[in-house]
Write a structure and sequence with these properties.
The complex is a heteropentamer of chains A (118), B (305), C (1043), D (240) and E (186).
Chain A lengths: L1 H21 L3 H23 L18 H4 L3 H32 L13
Helix pairs in contact in A: 1-2, 2-4
Chain C lengths: L6 H17 L4 H27 L6 E4 L10 E4 L1 H20 L1 H6 L1 H20 L3 H20 L4 H32 L4 H7 L5 H17 L7 H9 L2 H22 L8 H18 L6 H21 L1 H4 L2 H27 L14 H14 L6 H15 L3 H27 L12 H21 L12 H11 L5 H19 L5 H20 L10 H17 L3 H19 L6 H26 L17 H16 L8 H7 L4 H8 L1 H14 L8 H23 L4 H21 L3 H32 L15 H15 L6 H15 L2 H26 L15 H19 L1 H12 L9 E3 L2 E3 L4 E3 H22 L4 E2 L15 H4 L7 H7 L6 H20 L7 H21 L1
Antiparallel strand pairs in C: 1-2, 3-4, 4-5
Helix pairs in contact in C: 1-2, 1-5, 2-3, 2-5, 3-5, 3-11, 3-19, 5-6, 5-11, 6-7, 7-9, 7-10, 7-42, 9-11, 9-42, 10-13, 11-13, 11-15, 12-13, 12-18, 13-15, 15-16, 15-17, 15-19, 16-18, 16-19, 17-25, 18-25, 20-23, 21-22, 22-23, 22-28, 22-32, 22-36, 23-24, 24-25, 25-26, 25-27, 26-29, 27-28, ...
Chain D lengths: L2 H21 L12 E4 L5 E4 L19 H13 L1 E4 L25 E4 L7 E5 L4 H13 L5 E5 L2 H4 L21 E3 L6 H16 L5 H7 L1 H11 L11
Parallel strand pairs in D: 3-4, 5-6, 6-7
Antiparallel strand pairs in D: 1-2
Helix pairs in contact in D: 2-5
The chains are: A mainly alpha (118), B mainly alpha (305), C mainly alpha (1043), D alpha/beta (240), E alpha+beta (186).
């Protein structure tokens, strides 16, 4: 299960990178970036997951002994939430840029924005 | 010997040198004439020319440097005489050693330029284009002559470990086999060749180059100025010959020997001059950079190894 | 003592940001003020911590969030480093906000909020000790920055911002992966606990640490994966450029500084390598750059690269790391922010367009300050930092690193100085004035002043820096402040100052130093007297002239190598500004500066090598260098030869001296060149003087001197420009001096020193006279002059005596040198060098005659009929110097005897014997004054004779010459002056091909071509930039794994 | 034609020539000799008059010979050292080179050629003299230091010779510069030229070689004659 | 040659053609045509070498006759183009743009005959005679002997014989001298 999640995460990252590098359309690049981000999030969650563990809430079920082996690590989960929020912000700003760029040149092809050379 | 006696001998020596220079100049002309099958000038012609020149009634002046030029020239000649031990008498303060202080070779070498530089300045004030051309050629040729000549002088200085002309002459005493001509043949050969340039006769007479650039630096000079320059020229000719005599041909033990040797040395350049036509400046310069320079290098290499 | 907790920076910033968001666009004026207040508060907080921690009154403070200790919470640390860095960031924040006032106001409250958030996040990045927190605020910061960019007009800015977003997004992704896995392996996100856990043992943890570090390195825009950064620098508002370069880069660099230990020290070396690649690469590529902001971008990247090198070498540098890094960082921070802000004021895209800055001299001063701070000139902090860096690197045997660093610095100097040259002396004449907003000046001015202040306070922090004598520099500063006064007052002040200073220090100097100090100071005073000839204010002349003299005297006084190098660089800067004042001297000033800097770097390395094995920096360490002595002495000699313009390093001299102002030429020729000679003397003494351990070096130096003499004199012969002729002549004369010193014998040194004094005397006379003549006739070309003896007889006499002295014809003083040289050469056995030297002496006659003939003799030109005699203020120093020449000529023993006694200290063998007035050497004797009297006596007798016999001579005029029956038509066609030595040229032209110049040109061309080809990787395509980043990571990883 | 008629005709001609000269007072200035202005380095304007500014515009003065024996001695030296200017003015100059050949060898008489007027004191006007050349001759003659001697070679210098009616050659040299020795013939052979030198030496030794002073004495008259025919007078009155 | 002249006649107003030799022909054209004919000959007919240019004073007709002599290096033939211009205020179109050496010829003609060639470079400068202010000296109405007598101080006592008269007297002492011949000989 962990392996699958890891593979999924890395695959998403690579697919995202591929999208960023190969697609000309800015929107598609942003989509690629989102995929990249998502892959990252999957990775984060995977890292903190413990097989068969429960939610990291200290209640009677979990008990007070062996906590660490019974519950899933809470930190990555907190991290992923933050990362998702930040990813959202970045994506939103990128889309805003895409809008501005389209307004400027009536084009969403990234190779049209190569005015500053060398 | 008191300073007055020394002064007297020096003045006497200067008088002899001046007259010998005139006579030598006349002889040169005479030889040239006889070579061409002519009768030639009378031997006393230079004195007449001098007399005529200083008796010219109208003179002009282009300015102060116009005066100074011939003065520099004559001072250069006289000074060269003063700094040169003339006749070897066995003592560095002998009768005919003038004010030479043992005759420093470097001093003589650099003082040769004194008259030339002054002449260049004097002629320049005249504003004549040919003066400037003549001087430009002269300086270029001087630089070219200087290189082999310096090498040869250095070689002689290495040979005897001294720059003193007196000591160099002293070392050559006792028979002609002690002359540098035989003891240091490469330096001697260099000097004998480079001497042609220093003497300024054809084919190296492009400074004056008569009828090409009129008469070079002297174009604007007349009358007394010319007379002074003629005198200076005579003295300088003798002194050049004396220098080479002291350096290569064993110096002189008496005035007679001096006169014979300087005449022969002078005759060498006259002889070459009679045979070869004038060089262009670049030919002259490159000529000195060929054989004389090579000989000069050899002369140094032999003594530096 | 309780200080405000740094957490309030975050809290207050966030609170105000929300509050401003509430305000909306309605209250723009008040919202801007609130922003400023918030930034000021941040600054205040940081500064109080700086003072608190700096004075040791308080302990470093840990702030824990949510009451837990790490690793269960996020913690902030406010130590001394953090406080300083945050202070720097916040100061840029305040000043940047002031600078961007109109832009921030126009773009509304939103932009102000974003601005505040940006600085808040930068603060947190610095303070936080939690990796994830750092990541979060890096992202927040980049979002905020992108938000600022997007608010601007212009497609370029927008697309640059998008590329920036994309790139930083990917980089953060990489960072995040690293963070996750390091958490996985160490179970902690706290930097300190990760370092303690020492994760290097596990392979996977190493990869994650690598990913984290490489991401931060990429954030620092490492070469070559930095195209996105360059685009932002180029396109965005200069204020944003300043923030990026000063604040953002500083914060990110500090992050790297914090986290670099998580990989142990395994990655340090690679960080250094990346740093050096960045430093050299981006500085090299900047060579072809013409866009000013992009140029600054390249330079920023280079500087950060340098900082990365320092970080990588922190084990070697030890406790000096902070000092060095801080010196470089602060210089870069102040200078780069200042330059970016300046670019917003000047509003010129192309660096050639910066010529407009000439209209506002004080801005030129600011620009010069920033640029010289960037390339590491004293008294700026970077100078001391670079000095320490090089010393420590050399000390640990990292010579190749020093070479790489200095090469990069050299490239940076090339484009920076060139840029400055365009600004100070561009070719475009019709320049428009530019408008200045007053609020934009304030930050720039503050930063410029800050550079000097910081430099002043940084200097004493090196062990040896305390000894630096700042008194001359105070004087320079005072004169600079008084620059509005007229020449006559400033000149008097300068002269009086120099006299007093000279009077003060001369008792402390030994004989050898006294000679040089006398040349520098007496020569300086005399040449300054000529300055009275100028009218008006002559703005900027006196500070730079005095700066040069301050440097010169510092060299003489130097007790330590640092003082020496300090003085050397001050002198270089001063002389550069002096030279560049000439009308057409821009390219020559540039090449002067580059050769000087190159020489200074050689010197620096040499001094570093001398320091090896010694604890002190005293000048004594030059004696008997033990570490690679041949290389060390060789480098020192090369460094000094760059100033004496030896063949190969001479190409700057003719133009620089020839095009300089009339009274500057003697300063830089007769006086400045002696600084190089002084250095060579020191080096040769260090090489063991009469022991002559390194005779091969001396032998090579001797040949170099001889060939320099020949080449210089030969080139002088074919010059048409009077001042260039003299400049080439200086090259030749310096060749003599070098040859004489290289002989390493008593007579050789005597000759060399005799030449040092002589060259000072006659070259000052000649340059002053010719300079004054040039001022009168308005041209440098000799063929356009002529016959001036009638108009300026006094100048003529000066030149005549000068050239006779120079040519070495007896009886004047030049002959002393020649005589000594002949004897020395015979003694040493260097016959061929000697022959070459004397051949060049023969050549010297040619150009000397030409100088005096074509200028003073021959035909007077029509337009010079009414020119006046040269100014009295020039005549005074000229005739003072002439008196010196005459005394030296008439009584050479007065000079040579003390010199001989002095030299006997190092060369006791083979001294000259003096009997009365006669000098006796092993090979001959020379009675200087008797010879002089004899010659003068016969001269006067002959002169009187001739004057008597031609007393009736008729005075004629210039065309009264025999002209083959014609009359001359014009003076121009009658004056033989142009290409006089054509015949010689035909014979010797192969020797005049400027091979050296061609060689340097070729090298320059190759470097520029490399730069031009390589910089094409920045194709401006966002995807390409992302690919660069990915490739950079892969290649780095492979190299590290492989290495 | 009788002698009287001849004289009448000549007088009439001379009269006509004078009126003619008065009538044609036209002068001619070459463009390069016109006044011009140059800008000095300080920006002021300088007026240049190329005809007068460059020259010392003074008249020559008579130089009194020394007295008695000294002058005789000096004259002997002068006579024995005649330096001739190498300036061929007309067809007769071809007769001069043979003098340096072995057959004639003028050197033995103390006569030699000098390339510059400053150093010569004898001037051979060899044959016809066009107005254009006359200008150069005057200039050169005046530049020679006094005492100086003129040898006029060939009939053209005496009365115009075969060019008597040419519009461009002069007829009588002595109207323009004083002549010491005339050597008649068309052309005279080198022997005649040598004889001329001998005559000159005689004159000098007798103290009669004072034509330079005569020139100075009658300077205005000579100058008027010269200026009559040289319309483009672009030199000073006396070339020093 | 003839074909050439015929061909030229179609385009140029050739008023007269003299076939001197197989290799030498003279054609006469009006003033306005001369330069264009010369140009045509140079550019299309191969007469690229300009031999000389001269003038004859036809004082009786009140005309100057100008001659441009051209040479064809291919065929080794010469052609002379003649044209008449008025003697009063003589002026002719300049041909300096065709050959540079024409400058000098035109300068000479300006000095000797007073023919103006507007536009020709340096045409006003002296050619041989310096500072000439009289009538151009090669015009036939300029009396050189009279000028010489008036100007150059003829030496009294000189006997001058007119060679023609003198020789006739000597050889044919009996033949009376006619007035007409005297006129001619003057």
């Amino acid at each position: 299960m962990e392996i699958i999640a890891l593979i999924t995460g890395f695959s998403l990252i690579l697919i995202g990178l591929y999208g960023i590098l190969s697609k000309r359309n800015i929107i598609k690049i942003i989509v690629g970036f989102s995929l990249f981000d998502t892959g990252l999030h999957v990775l984060i969650v995977t890292v903190g997951y413990i097989k068969g563990g429960t939610a990291p809430i200290l209640d009677s079920v979990v008990g007070t002994t062996d906590v660490a082996s019974k519950i899933v690590d809470p930190v990555p989960q907190a991290l992923v939430l933050t990362a998702i929020v930040i990813g959202l912000g970045v994506t939103a700003l990128m889309l805003a840029y895409a809008l501005k760029m389209y307004q400027a040149k009536k084009s969403l092809d990234i190779s049209d924005f190569k005015d500053m050379k060398w | 010997m008191t300073i007055y006696a020394k002064l007297g001998y020096t003045l006497l020596g200067l008088f002899i040198v001046l007259n010998w220079g005139f006579l030598m100049g006349a002889t040169f002309r005479k030889i040239g004439a006889r070579l061409a099958g002519r009768y030639g000038i009378p031997f006393y012609q230079p004195w007449l020319n001098l007399l005529k020149n200083i008796s010219i009634r109208t003179t002009i002046t282009h300015g102060i440097m116009y005066y100074i030029g011939p003065v520099f020239r004559l001072t250069g000649g006289v000074g060269l005489f003063l700094f040169m031990p003339m006749v070897f008498t066995g003592s560095p303060n002998g009768l005919w050693t003038n004010f030479s202080f043992e005759g420093d070779l470097i001093l003589i070498l650099y003082f040769q330029v004194f008259g030339m530089l002054g002449m260049a300045l004097g002629a320049g004030q005249g504003g004549h284009p040919y003066s400037a051309m003549g001087i430009a050629r002269g300086l270029a040729q001087h630089a070219a002559v200087e290189l082999p000549l310096t090498l040869a002088f250095l070689s002689i200085a290495i040979q005897f470990d001294t720059f003193s002309v007196y000591k160099i002459v002293e070392a050559q005493q006792g028979g002609f086999e002690n002359w540098i001509l035989f003891t240091n043949p490469f330096a001697a050969a260099t000097i004998i060749l480079a001497m042609l340039g220093a003497m300024g006769h054809s084919p190296f007479n492009l400074v004056k180059a008569p009828n090409e650039i009129l008469i070079g630096p002297a174009t604007e000079f007349e009358g007394t100025y010319l007379g002074f320059m003629q005198s200076a020229g005579s003295i300088l000719h003798v002194m050049e010959a004396v220098l080479f005599m002291n350096l290569v041909f064993g110096g002189a033990n008496s005035w007679i020997e001096l006169i014979v040797k300087t005449f022969l040395i002078y005759f060498w350049s006259v002889f070459v001059g009679m045979v070869f036509p004038r060089f262009k400046i670049e030919q002259s310069v490159t000529w000195f950079f060929k054989v004389p320079l090579l000989l000069g290098f050899l002369a140094i290499i032999i003594y530096s190894l | 003592m309780n200080l405000i907790s740094p957490i309030y920076i975050v809290a207050v910033s966030l609170g105000i940001a929300f509050f401003m968001g509430l305000l909306g666009n309605k209250a723009q004026r008040s919202s801007y003020l609130i922003l400023l207040a918030a930034l000021l508060f941040n600054t205040f907080v940081s500064l109080q911590w700086v003072f608190g921690l700096g004075s040791g009154l308080v302990e470093a403070m840990q702030v824990y969030t949510a009451g837990f200790k790490p690793p269960f919470s996020i913690n902030l640390l406010m130590g001394l480093n953090e406080s300083v860095i945050t202070a720097l960031i916040n100061i840029v924040g305040v000043l940047g906000a002031i600078y961007m006032m109109s832009s921030l106001k126009k773009n509304g409250t939103g932009s102000q909020v974003v601005f505040l958030i940006l600085f808040m996040s930068l603060n947190v990045i610095v303070l936080s000790r939690d990796l994830f927190n750092i990541f979060v605020f890096l992202e927040v910061g980049s979002i905020a920055l992108a938000g600022l960019i997007i608010l601007q007009k212009g497609t370029n800015a927008i697309s640059a911002g998008f590329k920036y977003m994309l790139a930083t997004g990917i980089i953060s992704g990489i960072l995040l992966i690293g963070i996750i896995f390091i958490y996985r392996f160490t179970g902690s996100l706290n930097i300190d606990s990760i370092i303690t856990a020492n994760p290097i043992l596990k392979q996977g943890a190493f990869v994650s640490a690598f990913l984290i570090i490489i991401a931060i390195v990429l954030e620092l825009k490492s070469f070559p994966a930095n195209g996105w950064g360059l685009d932002v620098y180029e396109a965005s508002h200069p204020g944003i450029g300043a923030i990026l370069s000063a604040a953002s880069a500083t914060a990110t660099y500090f992050v790297l500084y914090k986290i670099v230990d998580i990989a142990g020290s395994q990655l340090n070396y690679y960080i250094s390598i990346i740093g050096v690649i960045s430093f050299v690469g981006s500085n090299l590529l900047a060579l072809k750059q013409e866009n000013s902001k992009r140029l600054l971008g390249y330079s920023s990247i280079g500087q950060i690269g340098l900082l990365m090198i320092i970080l990588g070498f922190k084990d070697i540098l030890g406790e000096n790391t902070t000092y060095v890094a801080f010196g470089i960082l602060v210089s870069h921070y102040l200078a780069k922010a200042g330059l970016f802000w300046l670019s917003g004021i000047v509003k010129q895209k192309n660096i050639k367009g910066w010529a407009v800055i000439r209209k506002k001299p004080y801005f030129l001063f600011l620009m010069g300050t920033f640029i010289f701070a960037l390339i590491g000139f004293p008294p700026f902090p970077s100078f001391f930092a670079k000095w320490t860096l090089v010393m420590d690197l050399v000390n640990t045997g990292n010579i190749s690193w020093v070479v790489a660093i200095l090469f990069g610095s050299m490239m940076e100097a090339v484009y920076m100085i060139r840029w400055f040259g365009y600004a100070i002396k561009g070719e475009n004449e019709d320049i428009k004035d530019f408008k200045i907003d007053i609020y934009k000046i304030i930050p720039v001015g503050i930063f410029a002043v800050a550079l000097y202040v910081v430099g002043y306070f940084v200097a004493p922090h090196t062990e040896v820096g305390t000894a630096i004598n700042f008194i001359p520099l105070y004087f320079v500063a005072a004169i600079f402040i008084l620059d509005f006064l007229p020449v006559i007052i400033k000149n008097t002040l300068a002269i009086v100052g120099m006299i007093l200073y000279f009077y003060n220090i001369y008792p402390d100097l030994d004989n050898m130093r006294l000679i040089f100090e006398a040349i520098f100071m007496v020569g300086g005073i005399l040449t300054l007297i000529a300055g009275y000839a100028y009218k008006g204010k002559r703005p900027g002349f006196y500070p730079v002239a005095l700066l040069m003299y301050a440097g010169l005297t510092a060299i003489i006084e130097a007790q330590t190598t640092l003082q020496f190098f300090f003085g050397w660089e001050v002198m270089t800067a001063g002389s550069y500004f002096l030279i560049i004042r000439g009308k057409r001297s821009m390219p020559h000033g540039l090449s002067y500066m580059l050769f000087s800097i190159g020489g200074a770097y050689a010197l620096l390395t040499g001094l570093g090598m001398a320091h090896v094995g010694h604890a002190s920096f005293s000048m004594e360490i030059l004696n008997g260098i033990s570490y690679l002595p041949y290389l060390a002495y060789g480098l020192l000699i090369v460094g000094f030869l760059s100033k004496t313009a030896a063949l190969g390093l001479h190409i700057w001299l003719p133009g620089a001296h020839g095009e300089a102002e009339s009274d500057v030429s003697p300063m830089v020729s007769a006086i400045l060149l002696k600084a190089g000679v002084f250095g060579i003397v020191l080096t040769l003494i260090g090489m063991g003087a009469s022991n002559n351990q390194y005779s091969e070096l001396a032998y090579a130096l001797g040949w170099l001197g001889a060939i320099t003499a020949l080449a210089g004199n030969l080139m002088a012969v074919f010059q048409e420009d009077a001042k260039r002729l003299l400049a080439y002549s200086s090259i030749g004369q310096l060749g003599y001096i070098v040859l004489g010193l290289a002989m390493m014998t008593h007579l050789g040194w005597l000759g060399g020193f005799s030449y040092v004094i002589n060259h000072f005397l006659y070259k000052a006379v000649l340059f002053l006279t010719i300079g004054a003549v040039v001022m009168r006739v308005g041209t440098h070309n000799m063929y356009q002059m002529g016959g001036l003896i009638k108009r300026m007889p006094l100048a003529f006499i000066a030149v005549m005596i000068g050239i006779i002295a120079l040519s070495g014809v007896p009886p004047l003083s030049g002959f002393a040198g020649k005589w000594l040289f002949y004897n020395a050469i015979l003694e040493k056995g260097w016959y061929f060098q000697g022959a070459i030297m004397f051949f060049s002496g023969g050549i010297a006659f040619m150009y000397l005659w030409r100088l005096i003939h074509t200028v003073f003799l021959g035909q007077l030109k029509d337009n010079h009929r009414n020119v006046k005699e040269i100014s009295i203020w020039f005549l005074i120093p000229i005739y003072t110097l002439l008196a010196g020449i005459m005394v030296y000529s008439m009584k050479p023993q007065w000079v040579l005897q003390p010199l001989g006694n002095m030299i006997a200290k190092w060369f006791p063998e083979g001294q000259l014997q003096w009997v009365g007035e006669t000098a006796i050497s092993q090979y001959g004797q020379w009675a200087g004054s008797l010879v002089a009297i004899t010659i003068m006596g016969s001269f006067i007798i002959v002169l009187v004779l001739l004057m008597l016999s031609t007393r009736k001579a008729h005075k004629v005029k210039q065309f009264d010459i025999t002209y083959s029956g014609e009359r001359p038509e014009r003076p121009e066609t009658t004056h033989v002056a142009y290409n006089v030595f054509e015949g010689l040229y035909k014979a010797m032209w192969p020797a005049t091909i400027p091979l050296v110049e061609a060689w340097w040109n070729k090298i320059t061309e190759i470097l520029h071509n490399i730069a031009d080809v390589t910089r094409r990787i920045y194709s401006s395509n966002g995807q390409v930039y992302v690919a660069h980043i990915v490739l950079f990571i892969i290649v780095s990883y492979l190299v590290i794994i492989g290495g | 034609m009788s002698e009287k008629d001849m004289n009448d005709k000549v007088n009439e001609m001379l009269q006509r020539s004078e009126t003619n000269v008065k009538k044609a007072e036209k002068t001619f200035i070459h463009p390069e000799d016109e006044e011009r202005e140059v800008v000095a380095p300080d920006g002021s304007i300088i007026k240049i008059n190329p005809i007068y500014d460059y020259f010392s515009n003074e008249k020559p003065t008579e130089e009194k010979p020394c007295s008695g024996v000294i002058e005789k001695f000096l004259n002997w030296a002068r006579a024995e050292s005649i330096w001739v200017l190498g300036f061929g003015t007309g067809c007769g100059s071809i007769e001069i080179p043979p003098l340096v050949t072995p057959r004639f060898d003028m050197f033995r008489f103390g006569v030699q050629m000098r390339p510059t007027p400053r150093q010569s004191n004898a001037f051979i006007i060899s044959g016809y003299l066009s107005v254009k050349t006359l200008k150069r001759v005057i200039r050169t003659y005046e530049q020679m230091p006094s005492p100086k001697y003129i040898l006029a070679l060939g009939s053209c210098t005496i009365n115009g010779g075969m060019y008597y009616d040419s519009y461009s050659t002069i007829n009588r040299l002595d109207k323009y510069i004083p002549v010491d020795v005339y050597i008649a013939g068309c052309m005279p052979r080198p022997e005649a030229l040598l004889a001329g030198f001998m005559k000159l030496k005689e004159l000098i030794k007798e103290g009669k070689g004072e034509k330079a002073n005569e020139y100075a004495r009658n300077f205005d008259e000579y100058k008027a004659n010269q200026k009559k025919i040289i319309k483009d007078w672009n030199m000073p009155d006396y070339n020093w | 040659m003839k074909e050439l002249i015929n061909k030229l006649s179609k385009d140029f107003n050739i008023t007269d053609a003299v076939y001197q030799r197989p290799s030498l022909t003279f054609v006469t054209v009006p003033k306005g045509v001369a330069i264009s004919l010369v140009t045509d000959l140079r550019d299309y007919e191969g007469y690229s070498h300009f031999v000389m240019m001269s003038c004859v004073d036809w004082i009786e007709e009140g005309k100057f006759q100008l001659l441009y002599l051209l040479h064809n290096p291919e065929t080794k033939t010469d052609i002379g183009v003649k044209t008449f211009i008025d003697r009063e205020n003589a002026e002719m179109a300049s041909a300096h743009h065709l050959w540079k050496q024409v400058w000098t010829y035109q300068r000479e003609l300006k000095e000797a005959f007073g023919i103006d060639f507007p536009g020709s470079p340096r045409v006003d400068e002296d050619f041989v005679v310096e500072g000439w202010v009289e009538m151009p000296h090669m015009r036939r109405d300029f009396d050189t002997k009279e000028y010489s007598e008036n100007t150059y101080f003829p030496r009294p006592g000189r006997e001058t014989n007119d060679p023609a008269t003198y020789m006739r007297k000597k050889l044919y002492p009996n033949e009376p001298i006619t007035a007409k011949k005297q006129d001619n000989d003057k």
